[in-house]
Structure formats: structure tokens, C-alpha cells
What we know:
- This protein has 54 residues and is mostly helical.
- The chain has one domain.
- It has two helices and no strands.
- The longest helix is centred in the last third of the chain and has 31 residues, at 23-53.
- The chain is elongated, with a radius of gyration of 15 Å.
Amino acid sequence: MLNDEICKKRDELNKSIKDNEDYDTIYKLSVELDELIAKYYLQQQKEEKDKEGA
């Protein structure tokens, strides 16, 4: 789920860099990717805490 979104966004970012798209587009995609990665790590931390509490 989140992994798939991260992979898709990463591919989209890489393509935009390869295609020399404008800075604003690349920056926007980069920020979106960073946000997805942050969500992933927060989700992982929550799952670890849930396991420890069980």
C-alpha cells in the first residue's frame, strides 16, 4: 500500500529529473515523496509499539 505509493512517486520523480522538468515540478514531487516516506516510518514505529504492548 504505502510502499507502492512510495515506489510510484519515486519513479515519477526520477522521470521528471530525467526529462529535465522545471524545478518547481521536481521539488513538488520530492516533497510529496518525503511525506510518504515519513508516513511509512511513522506507521512502522506505531506497529513496533503495538507489538511491544501486546
